[in-house]
Amino acid sequence: MTQISRDDVHYLAQLSNLQLADGEADSLGRDLANILGYIEQLSSLDTEGVEPTYQVTDLQNVWRKDEKDNYGLERESLLRLAPESQDEQVKVPKVL
Amino acid sequence: MRRIDDYRDMTAVDAVREAIEAAKANESFHAILSLTEERALARAADVDAGTVSGRLAGVPFIAKDNFLTFGSATTAASRMLENFEAPLQATAIERLEAEGAICIGKANLDAFAHGGSTENSAFGPTKNAVDTSKVAGGSSGGSAVAVALGIVPFALGTDTGGSIRQPASFNGVVGVKPTYGTVSRFGVVAMASSTDTIGVLAVSAKDAEVVMDIMSGQDDRDMTTLPDFFAPQGIERPLKIGVIGEAMTDDVATVVRDKVVASLERMKGAGHSVDQVSLPILKYALAIYYIVVPAEISSNLARYDGIRYGLRAANDTLSHLYGASRDAGFMPENKRRILIGSYVLSSGYFDAYYLKAQKARTLLIEEFNRLFDDYDILVAPVAPTPAFALGENADDPVKMYLADIMTVPASLAGLPAVSVPAKTEPGELPVGVQLIGRRQSDALLLALARQLEEEEA
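Output (structure tokens, whole complex):
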């Protein structure tokens, strides 16, 4: 059975940009170990020499015209969705 | 319980008022998250005035709340999008509206469609339409219950691993998961892009067919859509039907197996042949699914960063903004899947999990292909049990995932599959029978579903 420590969970959470409380990290760690324990059974399936499948449509190179499409949207309607905006820009905390 | 044809003799305003009243009278089921009363009545008035017409003129419907629609928030049943007012509508909604259909509200789901019971909704679970101590199924639980209660003749859902078929089975309605690429996903909240599909839950297979006919077809805004192949058809010759042996073992509740067998007898009675067939890789399907899908979820849900839209839970530093917003905006099941996805995609584990699963997926597709050399349609249960009790699987994610074991194979292979309600006695919980077809044989599956339905009537 795969063991997932609290540190492992915090590392995965960091990769995922998720901030977790320690209590939540512990319970998620137990769940993750159970889920990984289940999916590990796949290792007993022989896939030697098999090509992977990434999509199932058989479509290839679907092109569109190289033209601007604003989806009928105005800048203002998208800015309204932003939690904070100023001077027609989305506002974020200082990053530098 | 009204069907699409029953709306012909009603005004659209009366139809919408009736549906909204029914929705309000059934609030205790918590199937619906928001009603779009004002917009729906305005559109109904347009239909009655003759400015909007079409095959669904004045027919009310409900969309799962992961379809972007006007008139109320599109929440995906999450805190992240609790106040999200969509700036545009999903292509599927636009196509239905172009035929005069009227969206009256948004249905509950597991947040971001992650789940099989609708208990993962940030706004509370939906109750089963037949037995309120049971789950609605999921993730399109609200859509299934709204149809089963007769509020609307059809509702839209999404199906990534069974999210239309399983709640359809649990509530006794028809559920259609089309061939991957049949209906545009533009304007629908993404979960796992290689298996996400859009389909319909309906009172009857005949109505589901009308809705699929309207929604299907290529869309320039979704590059994965196929040229329109869907054309309603009849059954011109006896079909060769294979029942999947591995799906009919003792692990499946007796009542479910009995219903499937009874349905197979009716298919034989209609002149079709039925053989038992083998899909040995079925036992690995769920493991493949719970690697591939979380991997895609972890990528797709990276967009919820608290910057351009959605919840922003902190505003001091950028990393705290991201971390706190995603912590507050996602449900535990969303986090589980994101973390599993990050795990199976992380360096050192990629080959053992993600690549391995994608190879196994090839083997699964090949097994299906071999069966479809000889058979027109495969039959299996939709789920191993009827609806389970609210709370029963809530603390055990693996147990919850096992409910998807019969539905994920068609999803991974991109095949169409339909859940058809089996005949039940009074007092019995509904059980669905799953029909699985070759790619693009969606209309044939619905033709068989319709044949079974007409026989019963």
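Chain B has one domain: 1-238+255-263+380-457.
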